[in-house]
Amino acid sequence: MFHAPHGNQRAPLPTARESEPVPTTQQAHTQVVDAPAEKSAPKSACRDAYFDNAKYLAIVLVAVAHAWEPVMDGSRASRALYLLVYSFHMPAFILISGYFSRSYTGRPDQLRRLLTGIAVPYVVFEVVYSLFRRWAQDAPEQPISLLDPFYLTWFLAALFIWRLTAPLWRLIKWPVPVALTLASLATLTPDIGADLNLQRVLQFLPFFVLGLCLKPEHFQLVRRREARLLALPLFAGAGVFAYWASAHMNFGWLYRSSSAQELGVPWWAGIVMTLAFFGCALLLTAGFLAWVPRRRTWFTVLGAGTICGYLLHGLLIKAADYGRVFEDYAWLSDPGGEIMLTLIAAAAVTLLCTPPVRRSLRWVTEPDMRWAFRRDATELGRLRR
Q1: Backbone region of residue 239 per phi and psi (left: phi > 0; alpha: psi in -120 to 50; beta: other values)
Q2: Exposed site from 25, 31, 39, 385, fewest CB < 10 Å?
Q3: Mean per-residue pLDDT, 114-128
Q4: 264-304 pLDDT, tens per residue?
Q5: 76: Cβ contacts below 8 Å, ≥ 6 apart
Q6: Angle at CA 70, nearest 5°, toward 65 and 71?
């Protein structure tokens, strides 16, 4: 390092403190389901209560919707509520994931966190879910495939792909329109196949890309009092529309895992539904974020354990499914039974997000695998200094 005006005078080396990266809120929230924070950073200084609150509330909605799915068919009101919640809970989760992926550039330390925080949990829980299905259904011939995500694990596979492509989206001049084009084209392509659930990866992609494009001031807009007030008529109108649509719409559109042809509609319907669902999900996500508490609450700490709540609550849902609980207890489809299922699902996922559960699963959700990686030159130079 040289200062040109003074010839070959060597610039002073930075001190060790100056050379260390300063932990930021964005680094601490590198993945929404939830990356390990930097070891040296105090957690209270690294995390934003608002986003932890949003992640916890979103994961509760995910668990509750999964609990409703097996019992909702007998009630139009239940189907409408399911349609309303399913329209925005995963888009909200994915959008926040994209927002906290803005700093991803593919640095060695980021790639290590990507592998340990997303790839390793994906592999482990894909195997766990597959073995659980084999045991519960007494079907040892069922294959275990890491290329065909089972049940909830698709999100980890998708997040891995989206995160890897984040630097590319920052190079594109119109990233959101391009992502919407890819999502629309996916709905016209029934031959994509089940590998890594690429149909869902592409159809949910616009929400991740939009998150990459957002700035803190955009979230300040939805946190204003006016936004909270506007969210009330928004959800009221969406609820009325969902009640009407629940009797007419194919819910396959919600899952983004099928093409238009596979859903039995003309090809152009895929483009229309892609744009319509993107707009609806965006409005409802803004309304949801408007009502997320900004201050620390009793559940703020649970936002750091959403990966545990997400991955483990699926085992409870599948256990009830394999045990024919929803079929043998028909009263669960009654209003009282659905309310009870809602409370149980919310309580269970809350428990699964608690710090003791997170600590007990850290070996798989936040593994320390330094033994598996080479140290890059930057890290070695910092250690020498």
Answers
A1: alpha
A2: 39
A3: 95
A4: 999 999 999 999 999 999 999 999 999 999 999 999 999 99
A5: 243, 246, 247
A6: 90
Whether the Cβ atoms of residue 211 and residue 95 lie closer than 8 Å to each other = yes
- Assess contact for 248 and 175: CB atoms under 8 A: no
3-state secondary structure of 9: coil
How far separated are the first and last CA of the chain, in Å rounded? 16
Q: Give the single-character DSSP code of 189.
A: -
Residue 382's pLDDT is 62
Instruction: Write down the pTM of the prediction.
Output: 0.86
pLDDT confidence of residue 368: 87
* Cβ–Cβ < 8 Å for 307, 365: yes
Tokens representing 222 are 């939805």
**What b/e readout covers 269-290, taking b as 16+ CB neighbours within 10 angstroms?**
bbbebbeebbebbbbbbbbbbb
Q: Is 33 exposed, middle or buried (0-12, 13-18, 19+ CB in 10 A)?
A: buried
pLDDT in tens, 5-59: 334 343 444 444 333 333 344 444 544 555 443 343 344 446 789 999 999 999 9
d(CA 379, CA 108): 10
CB contact at 8 A, 306 and 34: yes
